[in-house]
Each structure stands twice: as structure tokens, then as C-alpha cells.
Amino acid sequence: MNKLLRSSAKCLRVGAAVYLPGSSACARLLSAAAGEQKDVGDMVKKDKVVVFIKGTPAQPMCGFSNAVVQILRMHGVDDYAAYNVLDDQDLRQGVKDFSNWPTIPQVYFNGEFVGGCDILLQMHQNGDLVEELKKLGVHSNLLDAEKESK
Amino acid sequence: MLPTVLHCVRPVSTALSFSRPLAHFRPHMDPDPSRPVERAITTKLTNALTPEHLEVHNESHMHAVPPGSESHFRVLVVSPQFGGLSLIQRHRLVNEALREELSTCVHALAIQAKTPEQWGSNPSLAKSPPCMGGSRGDHTVEEKLKAGRE
Question: What is the predicted ipTM?
Fold first, then answer.
């Protein structure tokens, strides 16, 4: 319960709509409310892991966006900011302009654009994702799974 | 003055056919066997990246768009030009080559970008995740389908 309250406190920013799915995952769905948080540069720096997807982590509306959510879930990354671009066409275009990348989903680590679904998937498959998460101070679940199997 | 006037009175469709190779795209109800978007993608990637192996797959039928659409693609590009480049740099080269298509009619582009050595050790095409229906009722996708038809 305390963890949930702490997550809620972290999520409460001006203009943000908090979404805490019923499952144990605490991915935060934030909305770029009217006029605020339009600066994508600020949005990507607010959290270590930021994703722009179609839909929400609990209900993705696109197979590629869902793949990003599932990969993060697999690694036990449960504290990240998710922005639904379907809610805001300005944001949808703003993200593409910011990263000079034409498609959604988009993944950012420590404010830096990492790539889309294909790149995240390849990083997951070749072990790079575990390393990159480690650099962020995020411990991947898969590291534990690896240790257990040895 | 005169050239300006001529430019203004030129019919939109003619203007499009001068600048867009996709101007002869027929209505979506009549799937165009000549597949102009697929051909444009193939040509542009061939010219930009001189691939040793190239696959261009129209995956629109896997998504919530009308039959005969050319809106969702998967490309596999094997090129020595990718040597020494990160995944994101490789994908940016592909995006750049297809900038026009991505800003008009192509809504989704899945990319695999390999060097000949990587292809040799793992000659497999990745599979796209199942569609979650996000394109249905998506205004941006409707605009792109319209752009493809004009």
C-alpha cells in the first residue's frame, strides 16, 4: 500500500492524469493536459524511462506499442512514464519532430531517444537492453533469471 | 508575376503528379496490382543503400485498414553501408531514404537493417506483432490512406 501511495505522489504533477493499472505494474500513464507539457524535451527528461505509445500500458492500441510495453514488463521495468499519443495529435506530431523519427512507439532513456519497437526488441534479444537498464540504475528481472539458471 | 499566376491556377492533381510518383494510385476499392508504394520503397532503398539483399513486405492486410492499402510495411535491408553504424543510425538511413513515403502514405515501417555478415549468420525475417486495431478510426491513418490514393 505504501509503495502505491509513494508512486501516486511521484505521479502527481500539474496537469497530469494518473493511471495506476490494477496489476502490480506501476507504469504511469500521463496526459499532456491542455497547453502544459507540450515541450517534449521536458517530458523525456522527467523520468528515466519514457515511452510514447498508442494506447496505454494496460490497453495498448497498436501491436508495436504493445511489444514495447511487454518487453519492459519482461524486464520488470515497472516505473516508467507512458504517454498516449492518440489522446493528443499535437503531442503525436511533436514527438516525431523532436526525435526526427517518423513513427510511434518511441522509447527514451535518460532523455535520450533510444529507438522504436524494432530497436528495443533487438536490444532485448542481444542483451544490450539489460546493460542499458543497468546504466540507468534499473535492475532487469532477466539478470535474476540468468543467475538462477546458472 | 505570370509564373506565379500559372502556379496558382495549376490543378492540384497535376501538381501532385509532377512532384509525387504515387499520383496514379487508384482508389482503395480497386487494389492496384502495380503496387506503386511498394515499388517506390524498393527503388529508393536500392538507390540509397545498394543492398545485397532487400525484402519489402506490404503488411497492411495485417492491420485495420481497407483491403489493397499500402500503409504498413516491413523492410529487411542487408547492406555493407551499415557496417560500424548503431541500430539507430541504420534505421535513420532507411527513414531518410523513405522520407516522402513516411510523411504521406506510409503509417508504419518495421525495419531490419543488417550487414552482410549479420545476415549470413542469421538469415531470418522478423515477424510483426499482431495488430491491436489502433488504425481503425485513427484520423491520421485515414489522412495517409487518402494521400496514398491521390
Answer: 0.76
